[in-house]
Amino acid sequence: MKHRQLVSSDEAIDGKVQHKKPCSDCPWARTALNGWLGSASPDEWLRNAHSDTMVDCHTIRNTQCAGLAIYRRNVCKSVLPPLLKLEANKEIVFATPMEFKEHHSRMPEGRAALAQGCGSE
């Protein structure tokens, strides 16, 4: 079953326990939709990731972003509690800042096809 994407923080559900895998719409997951970063740029997201900022999950209230915790471990970013620490997983979460930036700097495939079709007649 495919999980819903394009979930805004206004649609977040209440979490009862901290999740250990990225949510269905996590920008740090390799399955993330290109450019789905809200009003922040890929560089702004990366600055937060490489800082000691706590980041909440945007789809599950009262939890931290599991995708970010995995990304931080993937890039060997050391954090101290209360920041969430999870195991590295380079298969489901971006392994480098370059991968994250490249993925989120590309136009989504559907929009790219539309853009190519415009003005071609």
Summarize the structure.
The protein is mainly alpha-helical. The chain has four helices and two strands, in the order E-H-E-H-H-H. The mean pLDDT is 85.
How would you describe what is shown here?
It is a single chain. The radius of gyration is 15 Å and the shape is globular. The chain is built from four helices and two strands; from the N terminus they run E-H-E-H-H-H. It is about 30% helix and about 5% strand. It has helices at about 40-50, 65-75, 95-105, 110-115, and strands at about 15, 60. A two-stranded parallel sheet has the order 1-2. It starts with 12 loop residues before the first strand and ends with a helix. The chain has one domain. With about 120 residues, the chain is mainly alpha-helical.
On the 0 to 100 scale, the average pLDDT is: 85
Number of contiguous helices: 4
Lateral arrangement of strands in the main beta sheet = 1-2
The helical percent reads 25-40%
| Cα-atom radius of gyration | 15 Å
Cα separation of the termini: 39 Å
Structural class call reads mainly alpha
Number of domains: 1
The profile of the biggest β sheet is: 2 strands, parallel
What low-confidence regions span 5 or more consecutive residues with pLDDT below 50? none
Q: How many strands appear in the DSSP assignment?
A: 2
Topology:
Layout: E1 13-14, H1 42-49, E2 60-61, H2 66-74, H3 97-105, H4 109-117
Which features characterize this protein?
121 residues, mainly alpha, two-stranded parallel sheet, 4 helices, 2 strands, 29% helix, globular
